[in-house]
Amino acid sequence: MAGRRVLRSARWWWLVAAGVVAVAAFVVAEVLGTRAAPISISYGNTGNSAELYPGIHPGRGIHPVNDFGGFHEDIYIPPQNGTFSLFAAVANNGTGPVTVESVSLPADSPISLAAPVRYSTPGMGGSNQIPPPTSRVLHDVVLRPGQEMFVGFPVRMWPCAQKDVWTGISTFLVHVRNAQVTRTVAVPWGNLGDALIVHAPGGRPGQPDTVCAPHAVLPR
Question: Which end of the chain is more exposed for a tag (fewer CB within 10 A), N or C?
């Protein structure tokens, strides 16, 4: 009989301990869920993109295409010499603050970063100009709910391309975190779901079916 009472007592304490662990796990999950509000990142409200960014050399001949009716707009980028700028905006549409760790281009993009990405926010440098003339290297920037920042990409591309072959760059990548959650969000190049449109890179000046930037200088 004593052995049975001991066994029953041990089972009872085991059930109590299991219940305590379950309650603790639920409380922790609720706390983490409260701290980690859903991440919602999108293109900002400044209009469509690929304009020049202050402090970075502007590209030549960049202009909107596929914009009939105002429901969509892509950006055509002809072959370029050297480093030039792309502009984008990033907004936090979520309910809690997020930290933008970095911004990058897709690995298969025919346009690549030539220097660290820059950023600015309204009011930086005492100016509400869009984007403000003062900027910093983008690293761990906190965006509050509803806040927007402007991103400057110093980029380069092969200065020659194939005339009749096209390729598109539909998004750039925003690496963001809040509390315990880290995500990479693919953001289009404008608030109408825009993409960058380029001729497929390749070739050299003088080759047939090849278009090059004026006075093209080929990278070594």
Answer: C
The first and second tokens of residue 30, run together, are 């609720």
Rounded distance between C-alpha atoms, residue 212 and residue 61, angstroms: 12
DSSP 156: E
Among residues 100, 121, 120, which one has the least CA distance to residue 187?
100
Q: What's the confidence (pLDDT) of residue 50? A: 53
Q: Check if the beta carbon of residue 162 is closer than 8 Å to that of residue 151.
A: no
The owner of tokens 């760059």 is 169
Distance CA 147, CA 44 (A): 9
For the chain, first and last CA: distance in Å? 90
Q: Count of alpha carbons within 13 Å of 142, Cβ hemisphere only?
A: 5
Residue whose structure tokens are 């298969």: 108
Is residue 81 within 8 A of residue 214, CB to CB? The reply is yes
CB atoms within 10 A of CB 160: 20
How far CA 177 is from CA of 88, 102, 116, 185, in Å, comes to 20, 10, 20, 10
Contacts of 20 (CB under 8 A, 6+ apart): none
- For β-strands 63-65 and 74-76, DSSP reports them as antiparallel
Task: Report the relative pairing of strands 136-137 and 118-120 from DSSP bridges.
Answer: antiparallel
Do residues 76 and 197 make contact, with C-beta atoms less than 8 angstroms apart? yes
User: What is this structure's pTM?
Assistant: 0.79
Q: CA torsion 140→141→142→147, rounded to 10°?
A: -150
- The verdict on whether omega for the bond into residue 145 sits within 30 degrees of 0, i.e. cis, is no
